[in-house]
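Our working data are protein records whose layout never changes between entries. An example says more than a description, so a record of this kind follows.
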Amino acid sequence: MDRGIDYGNLMHSAMRGLIREVMGRVAEHGLPGAHHFFITLNTRHPGVRMADWLRARYPDEITIVIQHWFEALEVDDRGFAITLNFGNQPEPLYVPFDAISTFVDPSVEFGLKFENHLDAEDDEDEDADDEAPMAHVDTPAEPPKAGEVVSLDKFRK
């Protein structure tokens, strides 16, 4: 059955593509100027690779900072690998783009927030229908302010 155009998932895919592009440029050229990132990710996502002690400390989510010291940044189609410093201890991580819940560059007041748009009703329908539920997107009453992190859920019915 054709459910129409899933704008919510298409938007999420495009925003993750933007993150992939930014991280690829940083891997190639380094961080320009005062740019730096706060990236919050779901540590329970099956593709996240991190040290056991770090996962035990942050069992649900962690916010990593990519700023002054990082190394071995490599980006592929699904995510990025990076070594960060946790308490003077370098630790390698692998972060799938799908595990990211927020991406913020405070130097230019830019941010993205990813929300799971499944609700209880959609969860019940999943057994009956293998397709992902369609997101409903509306035009906002007023545009977001400059530098405001925009959640797609704000635009859904």
Remarks:
- The CA atoms of residues 43 and 56 lie 10 Å apart.
- The beta strands are 37-42, 61-66, 70-75, 79-85, 90-96, 100-105, 110-113, 150-151.
